[in-house]
Amino acid sequence: MISIMKAERLKWKKTFIPKLVWLAPVVTLLLSAVLMGGSFFQKGAYNWWYSMLLPGALTICCALVVEKDAKLKYHSILAMPIDLKKIWFSKILACSAWLLLITLIFFAGITTGGILFGHSLPLTKSLAGSLLIFLTMLWQIPLCLFLAAKLGTYIAILINLVGNIVGIVALADGEFWFSVPYGITARLICPTLEILPNGLPVPEGSPLLNTWVIAPGILVALAWFALISFITARWFQKREAK
């Protein structure tokens, strides 16, 4: 599996993926610095990050991962004497490693920015928020790979961005936030970073500050990750018969 992952990452060298891992965090931080700045820099950056820019960057990454194979109608993959499930899982794991890297770059940038503008978030809270975003967005990787392979890059980006926006606006602060995975990240950010989905601070005494939702929310998101990975791997495996 590791050798397949390495081969997968070699395909990325002449794509936009290596640049995107730096560009997305930098754009987010610059937007927050210009539009928010000061003590609101970190909270503003986090809000831009998990609501739009990271989901958009992640969808583009997944779309580019399948693009080369799709152009060749997957003939190069189908000719290999390897279980297609392993190839699909290697794509998911490679994208997961990319997501972790971009998360760490964003965390380093937002920490540096916090020092320059004045800390508004404790370092431990900021680290917890970044890791939470990473864990609760993993499920989007197999979904975006599937959408890009099935519907193309632009439709995949549109569906995933709309899903994130609807999940944040309609589900994050409601009772059924856990029922649709798009609402999980925004709901868990409330007690972790004390930021509402609209970017404002969570009011004191609000039930949204209850931390009991964090562990179940992460487990639900990881369960979605495992389920979607398995279902899409089975779908990809059926390409052997085509």
What's the topology here?
Blueprint (H helix, E strand, L loop, with lengths): L1 H9 L6 H19 L5 H31 L3 H4 L5 H34 L5 H15 L2 H12 L1 H19 L12 H10 L20 H24 L5
Helix pairs in contact: 1-5, 2-3, 2-5, 3-5, 3-7, 3-8, 5-6, 5-10, 6-9, 6-10, 7-8, 7-10, 9-10
Give keywords.
10 helices, 242 residues, globular, mainly alpha
Number of strands: 0
Query: Which regions are unreliable across 5 or more consecutive residues at pLDDT < 50?
Result: none
Helix content: over 70%
Question: What's the rounded overall pLDDT mean?
Answer: 89
Major β-sheet, in short?
none
Number of helices: 10
Strand content bin: under 5%
Structural class determined from secondary elements? mainly alpha
Radius of gyration: 18 Å
Q: State the order of secondary-structure elements, H for helix, E for strand.
A: HHHHHHHHHH
How far from one another are the termini? 24 Å
Task: Estimate the global geometry from the Cα principal axes.
Answer: globular
